């Protein structure tokens, strides 16, 4: 009976196929498990046929339906593993298959594919261009060194023409994968022996002989980073019905390089636009770190909300499989960690107050001390200056540099403000209550003072880092000793929706020389990404560490689909009716309700949307109730709680001029100009985050005047 395996090139296409085509793929694949090789060749429905003028004689196409074809690499060496490499439209299938050739890497012994036709066409052109260039990217490496790293003759000639990194990246999709990865490392300045150790040796089978003599099945088995084997019908069903799990196996070379680098000298920062796999990389880093400390080292993995922590835990369980490894990882939010630390050290954690309660308290203090500043100003001063710098006395406050604040405060004014700030803390203390950030600050202090013998984590991995406040960073710094591989941080400054201002370096977390950026988006179609990027495109945002600015330039998506739909209505009623129609269209097209999300800025519109959907029999589930992944129901959320999540289809409703920006969330320009700008940017980012949660379809609607952000 033949064996079946899937290449990573297959998943990119498979994920966006319509349901009926996916069913066709499943049917065709199941034949590979039921029929003998001879029967496969004879099967009329499958129509396994060779490709004319193919550069690789093993290329075959199979029929999925009238329009779609699968591309299969069929063994011709007596081995029995068929490799499904792509699903493409009829016309493209032959073109795709005829140009590519699969070979075994001489060093890693993995199976690689290259677009040999394109490489041959481009090489002479590039050679000419390179003749004028002052230097070439790989000129310092001899042919011998490159061959030792698995670069073969065909690739060697081509890459000798490359002059810089952008050209290498542009050429990369044509090159054999392992070879391209080796070249990327060299281009980043890694020494050949380090590249051999970290990329080649880890893949090369221990019993590899001097020359590759492997049959196709063995080469496929050597390629676990890009190819997945399927051993029976149940596994086939599992792998095809859970395509999102592709990330467990296939990492983009850039993702793999970041996640599986053997060791980093200190804290590492990985940034990237939405859907570039930052969470995936964080999960793989946890796996790598667990593998490096088999002696029972403990890892803390944090994220921003409980819903995201629950999702991370589930995904980590999928990735690790071994429950013993999972037990060594604590997955939680930083706030929960703070609660745990304070409880552990003091026997009891204080009660927490929410934002509304905090606002009321500041309002009372403004009146009590008859202050000229607003409650909002005091709350921000407390958050961005006092808590951020852990200020405990009026003397410290007088000397404090008020970074990021746009209003000057002289000594007399500070003395006045301090009375209110001090009273705020005193009152809460006497009631045994705290704000979330106060608790984090306290936990950080307790942990720091507990001394080096106190149990800590061996590694801390931080996802969704962009919204963490300095008090939260201090806590994270305090729970892991300063040493190599202490902190691994992922985040996207364009998704900052709370106004935290952080200078990581000043908190003992220096990522200098250890930063990388991911640029390939795996979640959104190019159409959705480009549209959503319009909301924030012209904005420069402060980077994660507070050292510079970042833009959204240079991101690309691997997926394509329909353009987002926008719809304007004269009334909210009409908008809600259209929302119900839109959700129906999605469910009629076969999308499960749990794969659809509806989000709005305000709770009252959420209630109305829930009411209308339920009235026509569409089940709903509130994201804040943390529904299980398989629970039916359209997910309903505020735009704030969409952070970090993803769905096949997303409707963002109520995108009016009054909702984005929401005036109460934006500090008045006269109160603090800098804060005004930061708040406006956070409002933009909020809409951007909500829209980039959509994998395949995005629908944005409003009634009355639309948000000014949409005109961007
Ligand atoms: N190499 C990969 N192959 C296939 N799918 C991938 C890969 N990397 C990421 N994905 C998928 O892309 C989607 C986005 O990944 P992930 O959530 O890690 O991105 P992110 O950068 O954390 O996103 P955001 O910042 O927008 O929350 C997920 O569905 C993930 O499974």
From TrEMBL:
GO terms for molecular function: 3'-5' DNA helicase activity; ATP binding; ATP hydrolysis activity; DNA binding. Residues 251-525 form the UvrD-like helicase ATP-binding domain. GO terms for biological process: recombinational repair. It catalyses: Couples ATP hydrolysis with the unwinding of duplex DNA by translocating in the 3'-5' direction; ATP + H2O = ADP + phosphate + H(+). InterPro entries: DNA_helicase_UvrD-like_C (IPR014017), DNA_helicase_UvrD/REP (IPR000212), P-loop_NTPase (IPR027417), UvrD-like_ATP-bd (IPR014016). It comes from the Bacteria. Its EC number is 5.6.2.4. It is an enzyme of class 5 (isomerase). GO terms for cellular component: cytosol; DNA helicase complex. ATP binds at residues 272-279. Keywords: ATP-binding, Helicase, Hydrolase, Isomerase, Nucleotide-binding. This is DNA 3'-5' helicase. It comes from Actinacidiphila oryziradicis. The lineage of its organism: Bacteria, Bacillati, Actinomycetota, Actinomycetes, Kitasatosporales.
